[in-house]
């Protein structure tokens, strides 16, 4: 069973520790993006996976490819060309100080690529699952077309489609998102929807915007999840992360999985995070792994949310944890120092 | 409206992370001091401000000036001369381990300067507010004289005077402090008094020394604030920070502002700090900004305490936050990751 | 009064911050091991102490010796020879993510040394206290013999023997440990037993394995401590650390000391740790200091547990705190920033 | 006498040491650009100078402004707006391995600015010298217009114009450059022309492209310099740097200055450089300083070339040397350690 | 055309800059070994290549695999098992101070592996070239057997065999080396022999041990090369690097290639190196690339020696240069800064 | 045979790489001073040695003591007290850019100590050699007295006295130096005199101040050395380092030793240094080692100058080289990479 993910990878320039950009003279360079992150999650879990994107044919683009290949992701379908890799500057917040992201992603190689550059019949030939997030069609009209082409191929060739709605207000308006994502949803088998995604991308109410009380809103979440299945009958399951966030680091996290008409709820994890980036992608990675390995639905959602909260303890964008790491946390009620 | 601040700036040599001085082979070099910190706070808030001091005419002194100018503070009245810049070594504590500061500030350029080197009629000519803290007159007899000269000039020329009592037991005894500060208070328009400052510098009881219960002592604080206005009729307002400190990082913070006979109380902020240095200076900076921008008293104290707790999340001595940053925290009951 | 400690010192290679080994391109190098850590604790407390081990006669071995000597430990009895210094790789966990240690200590100089290389009549000639932990006899059959030789010499020459049972499941089985440690215990005057040590090394039940409720198990702990004194009549006192661990960093810590038929209990310290390594060794160091300085038993156990929780706030393996540092924490109910 | 410089400032992202971009996980961040570099050179030499540019109103843009202000440059005419700051990635070469620069400067705030945003009558009101390099008009058609507007204002108001031809093959073709620069040269009082600049921007032959024998080509250089004065009668002087480069670091450097019909030649400096960036800008800075301070022409060219070779020993883009530093090197035939 | 290389990969722990091990508190971690280095050289040159080894199934072993895969080497035949990865500590010398390497490679996973674990019929099935160096059979008797098995398979299946004699006095005596390498040479098609390799591994005199005059000994080198072909008729070509080393960094380098009875000599490169590790492996990589791409013999040896001297300018063990980088140096007689 | 050295140890704050103080935000902290450096040289060479000084009883002072003890120097006679440790800021030059040192050593613990605090009858009781440099009596009148007391004790008790004249123009004038050093020389058995020391401290001409031609001035040097023996008949031998310095790093170095009426000249070492600090102290250390081990005079001077040039390749103030390291360089005409 092989997974193919499609999206943009960017250079992340993070200040050391919690320095502000105004204070720094160094940036830590790493690479990430929703679909690359999911691919690395799967490679770490020893699932065959290929990441598809376009990067400039210069040292920055090559470095991005190498970092993904480093962890075992197949990079042979990545295109080279265009002039620049998108960048995001990253200032890690602390407690009441929010994390700050400055995007410099316009004019990237992928955003200027044409839909026709991606040959899905070749890329997806050996693929069993196709994964993308709402970020990809938000990049450009061409990328929207490229996603739809991949979805059509998948539908026609029995490739299972997973979509994380993943709304980004900095990239498009809710109105634009709805136009595109409602079309994409016609082809989706498994949908991941969190927080504002329900409303912003599908117009379905589920979450009231209060990040301190996500878990208390479980009922409206569940209604939203059922509504998705109702409106998109091709879609057979939905998974969501519910969170109560008290500070930048402190929160309660749980996952819900609606499958075959039944809801599966994970335990609630109360955590203090180290770096709150990519937790949603780690959730998607864990979910896909459960599906690939035929875990029971309850184990699948437990595994996915544990993968997600483990990511909160891992620096950079990729979730560098093994299946054994995740299973150990799932089993233990304790954590202790091993020496 | 332009602010002038006057005091010492030192080289801070901090060990990396939480290393002890005995463990380190590197020091992070930055520069700070109460009045320089207030000046940078104001420059970050886009208020015109000039910092006045004396530094040695060597690379260390020049670096101190550059760091302040970096953020937009006017440094044209800084004197050059003398042999050394004062130093403070800084070991950041953690939880039950207190932060440790080792002073090496004797014989500094400012401490050996003469009062007559500062020409207030020129420095304060375009000044609307003069700010100093109790640290400055504690440096030397000459600095005490220099402060008094500035105060007299201010009184005579309508410059509004703000004083943070800022008692430092490592620099002078309470008896010495009272002799000097009681004289200075004759000229002060707005007084900032925290914790032990009431008693140590003015002989007015307000705080019992228990750092875990500062907020519970609000009543005695308020009495102390009223007593200040009573004893120093030229002084028309007093502001204080009240804290309950549970560990080096964990505490509850609030501000009180007594103005025109009325007390204004900020909300309580419960925070886990990143670096507990310069929070008092950030409070002063926020307060001055509120006054400069004619905020309502309630908004002024809310802004000042938010600036102060934001500083707890910022490394080094300067409060590198914008007005927009502070207003966003004031408005949000939530903090969330932006990407 | 001079202390001699005997055991292995290893090179610790820690990733920066909380990076995983798979993510790092740098290792922070330091040196540590139970008995070296105790020796440095005592040197920091200004007690004369000698550390005995064997290291390879190459730059790695010499660096290990230098680091111990750095803090004032006598290193004149350390042997040079063999081919390598043992290594442990160290990934610091965070919250729900456990700390991960990868051992590479096989074939070390000490593990391949012969018992006859250590001349105890010379080494212990001026020694008043001999300290070892259960790690040392676990290293090899020769090291077991070397320990027993030292114990016999001590018994015959009035050297007071302190043993921290210190069970390591990665080094030997409980069955192997019991065979050896029961023999060693015939010579021990003061025994330190924590958590699983009771059962694993002496077959005495005391702790049920649940790290979240160590303190609630005080009664069974006390029974275990009494049982030790009963089974080993030469042993006159036992000390234990009891912990409730909630996350990798968060826990409650207390110490119990059974001496002359009476139990002494320390206060409970609720702490959030910075680096949870060597806290047990710091406890042993504090205990030995109390004995060397003839502290009352209550003060001894209070001092030892405070030394132990202070270590949680100190990076690397050694407890770089002075007696003054520990006494200040014992006295204060508050912690506050000094500047 | 005040200087105004106009051009682009970029974020420089340099790998540590000599790492390749493919090897790095960190970038050293600094800011630079020909005209910003000249401005900082002058500020370090205590000459009043203002730098004019446009940067995005985000933390990256603000950081660029702060770095220039840090050293005392007036930044009050810098515009804020647009979406991004240009970037250049920098891999420092070594010996036979060339330094490698990867540009990511397209779509920068300045390149998308309109010429009309710069109000020269205000900016140049107090200016005595206007400095720009050939990089600025190469950025965009609008920037070409902005430069010409500044030149016309200068001509009309007696502002002395200095232009470093500074050809960049990565930015425009020789044909494009000639069209623009020949027009600009109508307004230039002092021209700096190095290496390929003569031919590429003005179509005047002077240098054959062999970097190992620049100094041996002094005669053709001189002819080229005279030809400039002949073709552009408004231009009264020309200065050039001649180099023999043997490796990335090793070379011989000299300056020639043609003024009032006479050539002034500096001594030859044989140097091994630390970081070969910005040496041309440092030369321009030194030259301007000589003019501002009315140095004799011989001293002017000696000072300029010494400033230039000093820059080779200074990291980052700015020439952090004082007048005293430069004069000391000019005087000494020896260099020795001072302690 | 696909290459397979077989040998050990180790963790390299280098002190920062030129620090001695006794001075450092940090190690830079990278991975390398002759055959891994050759594999990465080829991957950088876009030649298909697989590296075969055995590493422990722990994070250190996995990191080694990831680093090689990072650059595009196929790692699917790497075995996992055993207890440790070999280590070498590395102190970079300077001028007259020699570089110092401390080996800690005993008991590594590969050294304790059995020959039968490597299934050459599978590994070499698609291989066209098999590469190993004299380091591999020096590791253990089993590795000697494994190499011979691979050689026999290669001979029987038309796989071209390349051997770098690569004598290591720290691993075996000349007598041991000769016994083994003479047997291996029966199967070698192309032999690389440098410096002492001729005598130490084959008993053929060629080099007198004086590193300052390697190039002057070209005649004896050539005789040694001819003697190899004479003694081992299956071997059809020999390549050698000749060096005059004046300091740790300064030297003259050239390559000689004997093929079809004719000698091809490269130009001499006079260089000052940045990090003199892996230059021999880079030479082998360049040579293999020339053969794979059917370069003329003269171009092959020129390319190989240029690849080798480029490596002297690249940090860590791998030669991170592209074909374009090498060809540019071959063409230029100049090196100059590009900006 | 035990050596005692007496002098000041300072905190050295060095910018990273070659950064200027104006550019840095970090300082590398180490400790050094002429007599501490000599002590560490001897400890590295396994000679018993004690260093005597006074440091403040704070973490900075303790760290200085620990660093010296680290390498095996006896620190039991170091006094604790006073308020500060002297500092020197260090900017490493490059090629034509001179190294820059900024002293901040006034008011140090040693400079304010009283002569009577040093009890020489106890300190020197087991000493065989007493070493000091001209820096120590330059510190204060009290230190001059302390040195003289030590010299008188040495003369009376057969302790061999070694003095490195070590003139520092930043500390005293030549006139002051001569008054003091001429008196000290009455007690000196072996004198080390370099460069300007002859004239500045003893009024004896030897060196004309041209650092490029020190070796060519060998005749006047020899005359100066003979003159010392003539004027100070108690002094039986003199050693000098002669240098031709071409850049900050490049120079020729040799040593001359006049003993029993005969001159011994070392070979000339042509070197490119890494960090030109403490080479004179390393020379003194090598010389003392030769005397302690009864090397022949020729071997003594060869060993001393090799130790000195080795120091040029070692970072920080201490010469971290073993006897084996030095002997290897003395023997080899080659340097090559070992792997």
From TrEMBL, chains A, B, C, D, E, F:
Keywords: Kinase, Transferase. Residues 2-308 form the Carbohydrate kinase PfkB domain. GO terms for molecular function: kinase activity. Belongs to the carbohydrate kinase PfkB family. PANTHER family: 2-DEHYDRO-3-DEOXYGLUCONOKINASE_2-DEHYDRO-3-DEOXYGALACTONOKINASE (PTHR43320:SF2), SUGAR KINASE (PTHR43320). This is Sugar kinase. It comes from Blautia hansenii.
């Amino acid at each position: 069973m092989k997974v193919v993910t499609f999206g943009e990878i960017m250079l992340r320039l993070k200040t050391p520790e919690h320095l502000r950009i105004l204070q720094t003279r160094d940036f830590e360079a790493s690479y990430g993006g929703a679909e690359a992150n999911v691919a690395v999650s799967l490679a770490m879990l020893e699932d065959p996976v290929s990441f598809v994107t376009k990067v400039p044919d210069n040292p920055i683009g090559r470095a991005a490819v190498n970092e993904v290949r480093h962890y075992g992701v197949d990079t042979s379908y990545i295109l080279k060309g265009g002039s620049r890799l998108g960048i995001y500057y990253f200032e890690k917040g602390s407690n009441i100080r929010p994390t700050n992201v400055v995007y410099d992603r316009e004019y990237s190689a992928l955003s200027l690529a044409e839909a026709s550059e991606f040959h899905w019949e070749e890329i997806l030939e050996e693929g069993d699952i196709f994964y993308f997030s709402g970020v990809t069609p938000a990049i450009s009209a061409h990328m929207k077309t490229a996603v739809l082409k991949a979805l059509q191929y998948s539908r026609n060739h029995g490739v299972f489609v997973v979509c994380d709605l993943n709304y980004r207000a900095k990239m498009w308006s809710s109105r634009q998102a709805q136009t595109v994502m409602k079309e994409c949803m016609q082809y989706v088998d498994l949908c991941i929807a969190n927080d504002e995604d329900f409303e912003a991308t599908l117009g379905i109410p589920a979450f009231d915007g209060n990040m301190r009380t996500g878990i208390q809103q479980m009922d409206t979440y569940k209604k939203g999840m059922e509504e998705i299945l109702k409106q998109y009958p091709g879609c057979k399951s939905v998974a969501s992360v519910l969170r109560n966030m008290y500070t930048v680091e402190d929160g309660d996290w749980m996952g819900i999985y609606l499958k075959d008409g039944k809801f599966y709820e994970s335990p609630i994890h109360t955590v203090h995070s180290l770096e709150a980036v990519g937790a949603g992608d780690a959730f998607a990675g864990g979910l896909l792994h459960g599906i690939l390995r035929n875990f029971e639905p309850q184990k699948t959602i437990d595994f996915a949310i544990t993968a997600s909260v483990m990511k909160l303890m891992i620096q950079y964008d990729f979730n560098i944890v093994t299946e054994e790491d995740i299973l150990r946390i799932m089993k233990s009620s304790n954590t202790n120092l091993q020496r």
